[in-house]
Amino acid sequence: MPIPESAVLSRAETAPAGLLSPRFDDLGVRLHDGGGTLRVWSAHASSIDLVIFDRDDLDWVVETVALSRADGDIWSAFSAELRPGTHYAIQVDGPQGPGNTFNPSTLLIDPYTRGLASNGFRGWRSVVVAGDFDWGGVSKPLIPLDRTVLYEGHVKGMTKRHPEIPPALHGTYAGLAHPAMIEHFTALGITSIELLPVHQFATEPRLLELGLTNYWGYNTVGFFAPHAAWATEASRRQGPEAVLREFKGMVKLLHEAGLEVILDVVYNHTSEAELGGPRSSFRGIDNRSYYRQHANGAYIDVTGCGNSVDTATDAASRLVLDSLRYWANDVQVDGFRFDLATTLGRDGDHVFTPEHPLLRAIIDDPALSQVKKIAEPWDVGMGGWQTGSFGPGWMEWNDRYRDRVRNFWLSDVDYGRRAATAPVGVGGFATRLAGSSNTFSAERGPLASVNFVTAHDGFTLHDLVSYDVKHNAANGEHNRDGADTNRSFNHGAEGETDDPLILATRRRAMRNLLGTLLLSAGVPMITAGDEFGRTQHGNNNAYCHDSALTWLPWEHAPWQEDLFAHVQRLLSLRAENPALRPSRFARDDQETPSASVMDWYDERGEMMSGARWADPTHRTLQYLATSTPELEAPNRTLLVVHGNERGVTVHLPAVDGVARYRSVWSSEDEHPSPEVTTHEPGSSVELGPTSMRLFVADPA
Fold it and tell me: Is 91 helix (H, G, I), strand (E, B) or coil?
């Protein structure tokens, strides 16, 4: 949601001057007077040269220009050869010693370059891009947070096998905006497409040696250029300007359809890896300033990827901020999901603080006020797990939600089969269902929680109910990679089976997981393909597979079409019932606008007692949500949850003001039932094993 102007002004007054200093303005190439000026920041360099290449022979240098140093460690030079389409690099010299890795013979990328071209094993070249594009008056959809439904997917994987998309557009930005994909997105009911990394990235040498590739893209080369491989062949042949134009065209068409574009951005580390790895940009420009390290030059790696960008320095933080501004305004994307966001919030002592200058600047910046900001609130360093710790204005991936929901529907049920009862009651599950108020402050509310059950990283929904353990041998690491604790349950057979009872139970488990996700308070995120039960055959870390293992299949069995119909129904019900999507937490002492008052009943229709919350033998809950809307009509819903494998008789609560309950969805149905049955308050309904049922309460 937009940050109130008063909040922007009051906090901007205390914004760190260093990060926002005008000395960092206009870094990179700016076109003017028939050429361009290149500006580069380096505090420790002794000289910087601009190297310009022939447009046809990228090994042929046509001009070398020395950059001049000015106040603020800014180096600059003008060249008439810096025109759209020009390939260029920089060479940087400087002192030797701990923390410095200068080599004046290395050709380096301009960190602010809008275009990149690979020169094979010789490395990368920056490319001057004009960026002209006609948006035709199309504006951002600006979906309110309470109506936002995220759909996380991979540009190539979503379209590579789609039969209605022309082969030339398979796996491309243009393919993602094809009418067939837009029809899928809008028919499903999602609002915002969260794309795995699209900044230009590279595959690690280790994977290349294994004959694999970095498919997910968490290995950034440049923070301003779109990944060229996801553009059409025609755009790639024309060069970076055409690649960027295709990306913008995708954004424009998705916006015309009312769909938002969220980017998964990786500012926490770069593709330069550990010391001794590639020297493509930061490492050669000012290693000491751009990467976290000890006094002796050894890297402090809190990302697990070999290096960590040091956002305790003004230059590194400003580069992140400028990259965000570019994508949000020049490219018109609608938001960002920050990979390993805890790393970005570490200070000069490498300790996380929610008041980190960069984190505050991202929230306070008027140029970013309209975009969604989603933190992955952890990294692998000391104190790295920070779920719930980011400040107002931030949304966060809620791993506590993921784990509790998986436990309730999967590992608890598995435990119950072996021990006659589940290990815990329904209390913790209810907290997550109601918006995780024990994790997010009242100031931030339930919409700070991005609820998810699966993501790109981990089992797919199908595999979560079909495998007890990971099967990652194809990754080349002897099954050592990927999470070992998945809270999954195969329901009686590992992987594929033709047992009809096991298959039916798995399908119901998927419906329960999706039902919980899409009916919980908070912002739901669906992983692409889960809406029709896509499998990765037990691989829970398929980052290195650009193949049919990771591409979405578009030919579906009847049970997959049924699952898709359930997601459609659930998203439709979420949109229609504001009680399911509160913006604030309710309070006992006053009416809170845009909150939902939540009352909890047991299977007898009686208010939940303290003992019932914790009793593992009673895992049946009735959740009555009453909206207190500001912009919509009042609304009440009743969600009945039954979390063990014995059926139960449920007495619907007799509540003042409720005339009847209309049954609108049940996880017991293989296909959503078109029939809406009505039930009197106090009447009984039968629920089968491990199931859910949603009612809308009609007023008396």
Answer: strand
The answer to whether 567 and 188 are in contact (CB under 8 A) is yes
Find the domain containing 646 and state its range: 587-699
φ/ψ of 500, rounded to 5, equals -65, -35
Token pair belonging to 599: 């009352």
Q: Which of 232, 219, 224, 256 is nearest to 329 (CA)?
A: 224
Residue 8 located in a structural domain: no
Q: Please state the domain count of the chain.
A: 2
Active site residue 81: no
Whether residue 677 is predicted with pLDDT greater than 60 in this model: the reply is yes
Average pLDDT, the chain: 95
Q: Distance between CA 506 and CA 463 in Å, rounded?
A: 10
pLDDT at 7 (0 to 100): 29
Q: Given pLDDT bands bounded at 50, 70 and 90, which one contains residue 164?
A: very high
* pLDDT confidence tier of residue 59, bands split at 50, 70 and 90: confident
Dihedral over Cα of 651, 654, 660, 664: its sign: negative
What are 178-231's pLDDT values in tens digits? Answer: 999 999 999 999 999 999 999 999 999 999 999 999 999 999 999 999 999 999
**Using one digit for the tens of pLDDT, what is the confidence trace for 70-82?**
989 999 999 999 9
SS3 assignment, position 139: coil
What string of DSSP letters covers 621-677?
EEEEEEEE-SSS---EEEEEEE-SSS-EEEEPP--TTEEEEEEEEETT-SS--S--E
Q: Does residue 471 sit in the same domain as residue 355?
A: yes
Residues 262 and 212 in one domain: yes
Q: Is residue 158 packed enough to be buried (19+ CB in 10 Å), middle (13-18) or exposed (0-12)?
A: buried
The answer to whether position 38 is within a domain reads no
Is the CB of residue 318 less than 8 Å from the CB of residue 73? Answer: no
Boundary residue ending a domain (519, 542, 576) = 576
Q: What is the CATH number of the domain that holds 420?
A: 3.20.20.80
| 557 & 488 share domain | yes
**Helix, strand, coil shares, percent, the chain, to 5:** 30, 20, 50
Q: What is the pLDDT of residue 2?
A: 32
Among candidate residues 376, 463, 546, 668, the one labeled active-site is: 376
| Active-site entry in 146, 310, 339, 414 | 339
Q: Are residues 416 and 497 in the same domain?
A: yes
Phi and psi at residue 624, to the nearest 5°: -100, 115
**Given CA atoms 587, 593, 596, 597 in this order, what sign does their dihedral have?**
positive
Backbone angles phi, psi at 28, to 5 degrees: 90, -155
Average pLDDT over residues 616-631: 94
Q: How many helices and strands in the chain, by DSSP H and E?
A: 18, 27
> Does the annotation mark 463 as catalytic?
no
Rounded mean pLDDT, 520-524: 98
**Residue-wise pLDDT tens digits, 534-561:** 999 999 999 999 999 999 999 999 999 9
**pLDDT reported for residue 17:** 60
Same-domain status, 544 and 647: no
Whether residue 461 sits in one domain with residue 489: yes
Tell me the C-alpha to C-alpha distance, in Å, between residue 58 and each of 44, 61, 285, 299, 339. 29, 8, 21, 33, 34
Answer whether residue 475 is part of any domain: yes
Looking at 517, 545, 576, the residue that finishes a domain is 576
Domain assignment of residue 541, yes or no: yes
* Domain CATH number, residue 654: 2.60.40.1180
345-400 per-position pLDDT tens digit: 999 999 999 999 999 999 999 999 999 999 999 999 999 999 999 999 999 999 99
Query: Are 405 and 452 a contacting pair, CB within 8 Å?
Result: no
Whether residue 347 is found in the same domain as residue 460 = yes
Containing H/E element for 5? helix 5-12
Are 525 and 640 found together in one domain? Answer: no
Each residue of 311-337: pLDDT tens digit? 999 999 999 999 999 999 999 999 999
